Amino acid sequence: MRMKSLYLFLGFAAVPFVVQAQTAEPDSVNTQQLKEVVVEGDLQTTNAKMSTYIPTGREKNASQSGVDLIEHIGIPQLRVTPEGNVSTNSGKPVAIFIDFIPATDSDLKAMRLADVKRVEYYEYPSDPRLQGNQFVVNYIMAKYEYGGYVKLFDNTTFITPAEQLLGNVRFQYKDMTYDVMGYGWGANNNHIGSDLTETYRLPQEDGTMKVFDRFSNTTRSKERRRQYFAAFKATYNTDKIQASTQINGSINRTPHSDYSGEVFYTPADFPSSEYSATSNSISKFLSYNGYYFFALPKGNSLTFMPSYRFSHTDENSSYLENSFAPILNGAIDNTNELSGDLRYNHEFGKFASLMGFVRGSYEYNRTYYTGSATSYDRAKTSRVGVGASYNVSIGNFYGLAGFGWDWDRLKFGDITDKPSAPWVDLSLQYGFLNKHSLSCTFHYSTWAPSTSFKSENVIKATPLMSYTGNPKIFPMKCYDIDFRYTWMPSNNYSLSAYAYGFIVDDRYVYDYEASATGVLRTIRQPLGGYVQGKYGISGNARFLDRSLVFTGSVGQAFNHNGRPYSVNHTDIDWYARVMYYLRNWNFSFTYISDSASPDGIMNGIWHRDKSTWYLQVGWYNSKWNIRATVWNFTRWNWRSYRQEMQSLYYDTFQQFYNGNSHALVQISATYTFGFGKKVKSDNELRVSGSASSGILR
Description:
The chain is mostly beta strands and 697 residues long. The protein folds into two domains: 40 residues, no CATH class; 633 residues, Maltoporin, Chain A (Beta Barrel), CATH 2.40.170. The chain is built from three helices and 43 strands. The strands form five sheets. The protein has a 22-stranded antiparallel beta barrel. It starts with a strand and ends in a 20-residue tail after the last strand.
């Protein structure tokens, strides 16, 4: 008799067992040798409720951040931009959580990748801890009983100088976890600016139309940007209670944003001249974020999420053009934001649950303008919303229906508006064999206008262009529908196809009014409708024992922008990436095609990006991860994206210059070490955003 050890691989675990091979005659000397059998567990699965991805040690070691890990795993439903933004393939925003607590891009840089056990992707999840977000990525981390880790992150860019430094320290003892994070970022650029062509059609008092072009270009520039923040967070985590309190502050400075250039006109009704524009700003904020989850008896739970933010912003600018009077502007803004979200969830066994919630928000902006407009604006915006969602899971089907109502109170100066509107969520998902999933979702809601859009001040930007707001605008209506299909036939292949449509009604829009002396950009409502859509496909394929990875996608977008622009656009974009892992090294090459898209829903600007390619080489060991990236090394001009817009009285075509499409070299490194015993749950630190400003832009 001979025995052969077989290993059953389930995820990362290898479980040995023994199989005895015997002939029919016990005393026979003949034996039968069994071949080695390897059974590989599923590293990626999809069903009606979510898709789950188990990263390999190689994928975690090759990643420097949580966003990197999404790329190395190759989640087919998601797309990661070169700037590190995560969205669905159709461009919808994705909420990021770490152990069911909200996270930001800074948290994803600070997290310890070796502690990631799995990554989950949800569409319209029923879990109350995910706060009703439509699309969610949640990282499940290894748990400490005591101990933690220290992580340092550095990213340095050459040619266009920039540097980012981040440090995170975590310590956990029993049920408490403490996090301290510090962050600094700085960038310098002397090759930034634009060439702008403006076409003016100004009606004259004698009934004629004065038509001319204004050309301005940047010949010299200097921009300096700095950002600093610090954060402290304490988390209490047990099976029944999860409580998190975080306080953080930030300073954002632009000490220099200076431009100078030339201006000329055709026909030459105005003399050619030179201009100079300078601006500087500083914004400070302090914020508190709380998260408190309580598991109650009999399938009940309660979640409470309060937050408060205060910001102070000071901006100053000047514009000088020969033959015209100087234009000086200043603004000081103080903004307070307060919000709270209370959710109650009840589980009806394993098949259904009902969640009800009430949420409220309040924002108070106090803005003092000086210069071309002098005033003191005060705006108060509040919203109270109630709603409920019911979800059911039967076999391979998962469905969710949600309905609620939002009441707004918008007060700007002496004008008060009290609109209210419903919102609706519908989602139906079907999954089978852990390899296929289909979903269709519908969402309707209203978007309240920013208080910065309501100012009646007339701000002069150039001798021929001014802008103002409109205190009478009200929330616009938004509808969107998505279709998605995901296929994961094995660990080595995955594919996702998608299509979506987005419609805006009662739209508030930038409009351009002309007089004999110039153009005023104002905001009007309602004007023409807005429709946007896209369809496409993305996928991954792995070969050579998952050492060679191909990733790609292709999609077509279309856009209709109604009055006052009345234009239609289409665009096809694609990207391709190949990655190769060799022991402690990893190599990748990525090409992203040129693309075009609308620049928001309020204007008629069509934005065109240039193509991008980059080559990465990375190396790692147990503590270090070092990466070098070469960007666009065949392109040595500073031309970047273009924007164009056409309206009745005013057209623009603008070529921008910066380092985004220029050849660049980046060196990034992380140093991480952990200590203690991995047993208990923990939650990653996140850095919350600053409060908004009420300054008219």
